[in-house]
């Protein structure tokens, strides 16, 4: 089997005094029982060829004495696996193992596989013995970290090598990432990885592995073909226990997953791990780092973008998963239920209020016939409109399906909406209605990388919560800019099979773009500065097509909005707005390279508030000063928000004049008069040499540098003239001497 990338396995043996730890180690290493053995053995190494995986095992003997507890704790924390011993002829040592040793491992936070070993099997009193299963079953139920249990005799050399074989196997081919012992089922991440492998092997994309595809899979993973009789046998085993596992085309995904669950159940974990590792997965069932060829930035003012090849791939993926047609549905209003959140029409209900960010919970019910949806216990619905879902957008369920071959992500939440979302997906309306409103903490799995901050709610959504192609591509551009490695990994997870190096590109430095007075970037990040209640959040919401709200909530952390912007020349650029809370500006600017990632900055102020004007002027000067000191000055625009109110124009005009940038751009989000602001922002970013603010100090330094450069030029010219004159004089003198 294909082993993990580990070069050695470190096994620490611990247990009560006199339980046979040292004898076990010595017998394993020498394949004989020593007549005399020292109380504490030095580290013992089993050669790579000792076990089939070809990975050496280093065994650490330990002392259980009180004076050596510190050393013992250090060794346990460094272990890849722990062997806990008890003596079969001393029942008290087994009690102490469950009452002390296993608890001690948890106290020390030693989270590695544990092998429980009953030593001195030859000395056990067989008249009063219970089976190993009877003895260990309750202990293993309490301590899930126990990988396996085994009894052995060092004196009779019974099952001694097996002890460390199981320890090595538990490290190289662990159970925990693959299988949930409590539910007796494959874990979600394992299922998602195996699904990706199945899809990659299903070359004709008919949803089943035919005999040829099965053989190719077998050769790729195990370097040996299956005989026709073996293929028939595999299918028969699956079909007898799972009829849906095989159809007329071959082995289905369900059957493929069943086979791996069967391997694990029979203790053949190395089979599943060999398959996973052949397809590039590491011990955490994620793609290995060496497969993610992320291009590196050589300077902080460079960025990473998707290539045209990757964008075309994503367009194809979007089209493939946008497979729903026009579906009739009901739009209803529930006056009795708050905070219900579902994510698309694929669920039992969908809360439009989460899209509109205001109003009561509007619910959408898919329906095949034009009739009133049933009333559910605890819920009352008022039918408002009979409509149809629009095509051309990915619903949440379709996004989950798209990312169903990528690893899930886990997070904790105290949000009732999330729990209601999960309940609604399962159709559990009564459970939603009866959910407690008291704060609780829930453990939730994310199946789309965009279900969490900062991607959640960062892109434009359709009325029914779908995501259009433009928003889909914008989200990918955002993820690529922010986390290129994660973007590339997800591209590969969802089926990008070209050279990973062809998916991403590094842009030129913005400093170089300023000198060239142009840029080839397709994605721009805009920092949005401004005081509290200036209208920053409203600007971001308007960028995503969301309605204006008079209610105000102070922003305490960075928010993002991403969308594409059509330029006047007919090209599209992706614009990422990053809202910087007023209280976060100081922390941001404490990093000298903070503006390196910024392509353009806007400074928003409430045109009806004199203090807002003053504070924005201060922020503008702070950012301008930071840009001059760091060398990462950025084009900047002033935005006079809330133009529908009475304004104070003069104060900010003076500030704009002080830093030599353009006059404020007036707009009103409430009146939907945006004055082409997003096109203006992109235009400023595409001309990185213009609209860069300069402070008085900056202008003085610039003027000084110009004088120095001019002086150096004059000195250089003067020196050149002197050199030329001297050369001419020497030539004249030489000719004169030769004439004489």
TrEMBL record:
Give the way it sits in the membrane: Single-pass type IV membrane protein
Alphabetic keyword roster: Calcium, GTP-binding, Hydrolase, Membrane, Metal-binding, Mitochondrion, Mitochondrion outer membrane, Nucleotide-binding, Repeat, Transmembrane, Transmembrane helix
**The keyword Lipoprotein belongs to this UniProt entry's keyword annotation:** no
Transmembrane helix is among the record's keywords: yes
Alphabetical list of Gene3D superfamilies matching this protein:
EF-hand, P-loop containing nucleotide triphosphate hydrolases
Cellular component (GO) terms are:
mitochondrial outer membrane
**Protein name as annotated:** Miro domain-containing protein
Family that this chain belongs to: Belongs to the mitochondrial Rho GTPase family.
**PROSITE patterns reported in the protein's UniProt record:** EF_HAND_1, MIRO
Q: Where's it found, cell-wise?
A: Mitochondrion outer membrane
Task: Please report the stretch or stretches of sequence annotated as the Miro domain.
Answer: 6-173, 521-687
